[in-house]
Structure to design on (170 residues):
């Protein structure tokens, strides 16, 4: 499951890795009103993400890493949301990892500086969907999940093979 954090909108996307390829499980947004104070928004997001994690029961949660913001206040707000998401994911018992937006884009699109529309199109293609799934926040979250799945597949292919020796030591 991938999570694109924010204090008003959190994109999420869950996929399953099957023998037939990647399959969309769930995707959407968690929304909080901009008129609510930050602590109330974060509390609302915590309740929403806890319920979502309970329902989906993911094995792995990938939260987008913070990246450079020109506005320090925006960076602090995203950091607060990231903390809520990381805490909730860890509390549900899932393995938790973080990926930068550029690392996810590079893994899914082949270009770490791809724009959000390119990412959305590649997400749709990877999941064999006719349409781009939801908003750009949703496709960013799905890109995180897909990148993690691709990384797991690569790690399995690169892992050293162990041989089982028979009785004659062959």
């Amino acid at each position: 499951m991938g999570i694109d954090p924010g204090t008003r909108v959190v994109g999420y996307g869950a996929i399953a890795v099957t023998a037939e390829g990647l399959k969309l499980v769930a995707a959407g947004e968690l929304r909080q009103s901009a008129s609510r104070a930050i602590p109330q928004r974060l509390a609302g997001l915590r309740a929403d993400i806890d319920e979502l994690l309970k329902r989906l029961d993911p094995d792995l949660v990938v939260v987008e890493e913070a990246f450079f913001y020109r506005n320090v206040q925006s960076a602090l707000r995203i950091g607060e949301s990231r903390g809520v998401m990381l805490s909730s994911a860890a509390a549900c018992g899932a393995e938790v990892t973080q990926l930068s937006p550029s690392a996810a884009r590079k893994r899914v699109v082949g270009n770490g500086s791809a724009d959000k529309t390119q990412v959305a199109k590649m997400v749709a293609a990877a999941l064999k969907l006719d349409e781009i799934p939801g908003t750009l926040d949703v496709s960013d979250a799905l890109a995180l999940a897909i990148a993690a799945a691709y990384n797991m597949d690569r790690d399995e292919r690169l892992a050293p093979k162990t041989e089982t020796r028979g009785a004659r030591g062959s």
Remarks:
- Confidence is low (pLDDT under 50) at residues 162-170.
- The longest strand covers residues 21-31.
